[in-house]
């Protein structure tokens, strides 16, 4: 297997890279020459006290890592592929209390409890309320004439959905937005968020959620929070577990969906034929293609629990393994012309919600519902929406984020 012709020192988790683009050409090089490739790093730069990680680029290999938690652990070094270099081991260990960073059987126990809030029946119960909210969000933005699509539209429905789901007063959604932004923005100097500010935001959100859980234990209501925490036994969450679950929702259920909606709008406006098709026919396949195209989470990681082999590479116990969804979702072995935004693409076995296995996204149905409702409302009320500037990207090592997208609301 040949060595890829990458610039010396290139790092697939360098936030400076993602501030400008997702490195799709470089991923393509790896898929063709070294699909599982060792990415050396300066010692400790990712916060783990090591010298690099494996880059997994092919669709089939990302799925293999995702579905073998006994070989590839989400818990040992967490699922987050890069922290700030100043992150301490104790700070990383706190992250392991989040479901995203658990392995079976503890992950299985927590997931079985929280999935009560994401049953088809639970999602259907939200649909009418969210449809009305999507319409009001779009109408309020249209009245402005021009604005930032991210703050005016894309962030609003995911936040309101979380508030609706867990019974948070809608007036508090701005606080959740602020907390979630601070938690993921430590790589972006423009946002002036230090590691300490991000940690404090996480603690404030957890405390807020724990207080909500305590109130529901004291006086249960007919909502998902009460069903999750009403009795602290093997079948329910403790207040602290609920707090970390809400923290996960604030990032996994807010940041990712809002970025999918933003990237989707930008894709439509730079592919006007697809926007015309969507307005005319509303294909059911559109939301899945938006997620594939956006791939809001560029990568997560696992840690090898023993020596193993993957894609011709010999991986040693304890080494980190990056599973790059952005590469897998552009694998030409799986997708015909992956570089084309095609809202009629079917089948579409993208890994935008994960590669399967125990960590497949619990909120997929809710995310697809939000994307559908948002673009239906946009197509109805703003058929002539247009770009007023280029997107300003988030500087992040693992999120394909957009900070601002200026538009004319047509």
Explain this structure:
This protein has a 5-stranded mixed β-sheet with strand order 1-2-8-5-3. The chain contains 16 helices and 12 strands. Helix 6 runs antiparallel to helix 8 (156-166), helix 6 (120-142) packs parallel to helix 16 and helix 12 (239-270) crosses helix 14 (286-294). It has 410 residues and is α+β, with helices and mostly antiparallel strands.
Topology, element by element:
Layout: H1 15-18, H2 24-33, E1 36-40, E2 52-56, H3 59-66, E3 72-73, H4 89-95, H5 106-114, H6 120-142, E4 146-148, H7 149-154, H8 156-166, H9 173-184, H10 195-218, H11 224-229, H12 239-270, H13 272-281, H14 286-294, E5 299-304, E6 308-310, E7 313-315, E8 320-324, H15 325-328, H16 364-381, E9 386-387, E10 392-393, E11 402-404, E12 406-408
Parallel strand pairs: 2-8
Antiparallel strand pairs: 1-2, 3-5, 4-12, 5-8, 6-7, 9-12, 10-11
Helix pairs in contact: 6-8, 6-16, 8-9, 8-12, 9-10, 9-12, 10-12, 12-14, 12-16
Keywords: Heme, Iron, Metal-binding, Monooxygenase, Oxidoreductase
Pfam families: p450
Family: Belongs to the cytochrome P450 family.
What is this structure, in a nutshell?
The chain is built from 16 helices and 12 strands. It has helices at 15-18, 24-33, 59-66, 89-95, 106-114, 120-142, 149-154, 156-166, 173-184, 195-218, 224-229, 239-270, 272-281, 286-294, 325-328, 364-381, and strands at residues 36-40, 52-56, 72-73, 146-148, 299-304, 308-310, 313-315, 320-324, 386-387, 392-393, 402-404, 406-408.
């Amino acid at each position: 297997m040949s060595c890829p012709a990458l610039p010396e020192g290139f790092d697939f988790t360098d936030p400076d890279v993602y501030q400008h683009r997702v490195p799709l050409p470089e991923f393509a090089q790896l898929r063709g020459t070294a699909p599982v490739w060792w990415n050396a790093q300066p010692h400790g730069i990712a916060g783990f006290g090591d010298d690099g990680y494996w880059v997994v680029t092919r669709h089939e290999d990302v799925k293999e890592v995702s579905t073998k938690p006994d070989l590839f652990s989400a818990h040992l070094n967490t699922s987050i592929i890069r922290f700030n270099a100043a992150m301490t081991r104790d700070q990383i260990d706190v992250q392991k209390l989040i479901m995203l960073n658990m392995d079976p059987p503890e992950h299985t126990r927590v997931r079985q409890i929280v999935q009560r809030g994401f049953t088809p029946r639970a999602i259907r119960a939200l649909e009418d309320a969210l449809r009305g909210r999507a319409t009001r969000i779009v109408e309020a933005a249209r009245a402005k004439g021009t604005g930032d699509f991210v703050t005016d539209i894309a962030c609003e429905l995911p936040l309101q959905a979380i508030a609706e789901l867990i019974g948070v007063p809608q007036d508090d959604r701005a606080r959740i937005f602020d907390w979630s932004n601070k938690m993921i923005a430590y790589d972006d100097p423009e946002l002036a968020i230090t590691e300490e500010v991000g940690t404090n935001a996480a603690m404030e959100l957890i405390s807020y959620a724990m207080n909500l859980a305590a109130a529901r234990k004291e006086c249960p209501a007919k909502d998902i929070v009460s069903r999750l925490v009403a009795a602290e036994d093997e079948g329910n969450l403790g207040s602290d577990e609920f707090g970390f679950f809400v923290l996960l929702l604030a990032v996994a259920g807010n940041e990712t969906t809002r970025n999918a909606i933003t990237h989707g709008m930008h894709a439509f406006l730079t592919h006007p034929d697809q926007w015309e098709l969507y307005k005319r026919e509303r294909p059911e396949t559109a939301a899945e293609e938006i997620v594939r195209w956006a791939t809001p989470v560029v990568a997560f990681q696992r840690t090898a629990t023993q020596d193993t082999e993957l894609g011709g590479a010999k991986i040693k116990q304890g080494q980190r393994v990056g599973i790059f969804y952005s590469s897998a979702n552009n694998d030409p072995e799986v997708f015909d012309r992956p570089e084309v935004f095609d809202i009629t693409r079917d089948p579409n076995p993208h890994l935008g919600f994960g590669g399967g296995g125990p960590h497949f996204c619990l909120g997929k149905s809710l995310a697809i519902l939000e994307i559908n409702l948002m673009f239906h409302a946009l197509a109805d009320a703003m058929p002539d929406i247009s770009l007023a500037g280029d997107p300003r990207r988030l500087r992040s090592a693992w999120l394909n984020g957009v900070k601002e997208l200026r538009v004319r609301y047509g």
